[in-house]
Amino acid sequence: MNAGILVTGAAGFIGQALVRQLAAGDEPVFGLDIRAATQPVPGVRYEKADIRDRALVGLVARLKPRVVVHLASVVAAGGDAEQDYAIDVIGTGHVVEACLAAGVTRLVVTSSGAAYGYHADNAQPLTETDPLRGNEDFPYSRHKRLVENLLAEARAAHPALEQVVFRPCTVLGPGVSNQITAIFERPVVIGLAGSAAPFSLVSETDVVAALARAAAPASLPGIYNLAGDGTLSLAEIAGRIGKPYLPLPPALLRGVLWFANRLKLTPLGPAQVNFLQYRPVLANDRLKTGFGYVPALSAAEAFDRYWRARPAS
Q1: Which residue would you say has higher pLDDT here, 196 or 235?
Q2: Structurally, how many domains does the chain consist of?
Q3: What is the residue range of 215's domain?
Q4: Does residue 165 fall inside a structural domain?
Q5: 186-208 per-position pLDDT tens digit
Q6: Which residues contact 299 (CB under 8 A, 6 or more apart)?
Q7: How far apart are CA 109 and CA 221, in angstroms?
Q8: What is the CATH number of the domain that holds 131?
Q9: Is 20 exposed, middle or buried (0-12, 13-18, 19+ CB in 10 A)?
Q10: Residue 313 domain-assigned?
Q11: What's the confidence (pLDDT) of residue 78?
């Protein structure tokens, strides 16, 4: 009989926190990653594996977990598109195949709000029934959409493998450093003229708590946006941290990114302007009423907690 919880991406920011929380429970915990965990949790069995390698199928079959929580994915835009595709799409395909081969009964996956795409006509807020339109010219967004298509096909073909799919918004917590937080760190917060650019935000503690709940036998399968209540615009964020806000014309920023990308000064290109201009705002009603998890921190509270935890400059 299958037993235990396997976490892919166990050495990542969310993965390490989730493994630590799960290890306090009664089930065996397996941590799988291509990297070694910087702070291994006593009692957790760690395995080094690359989800891009189909050998993953045999490894999971030997461990026979009850649940797989799939966190191994690309978390930043603007990388190597082919490598990112291999990790996100091919890797997730291997995870699904491994679950089916090992008799896993539940698969928990972190997708992304980026799967909805960055479009001027996006609903505000977006609900789980809105179409997934991950932008073709934005690999990060396109790959998240393709991952969800793959998961939908697996749900139709293999209903015995329950799925809990989370679509997180921007995740903030102490120590987080990425392309989003880089916007806040500059002396001037740069936004886009004519766009409020509201950010849905969620605390990493709420992400970990929701994932741990999803791994429990009694939780409900389904698809859930994962976001704290409310939003913050870049102008509001600038005000909270006492920095000037500079809205640039979108055409100007596209030109700057095109030029900088040609000079290999940044991996980002003009298409990434949509990333700021048309932020997906996520409704969390289904998370609270359908899944039964109410985020502890609002968007504003998650941001303030992240900002207070930064090292003094």
Answers
A1: 235
A2: 1
A3: 5-308
A4: yes
A5: 899 988 888 777 999 999 999 99
A6: 199, 200, 201, 202, 227, 228, 229, 230, 231, 232
A7: 11
A8: 3.40.50.720
A9: middle
A10: no
A11: 59
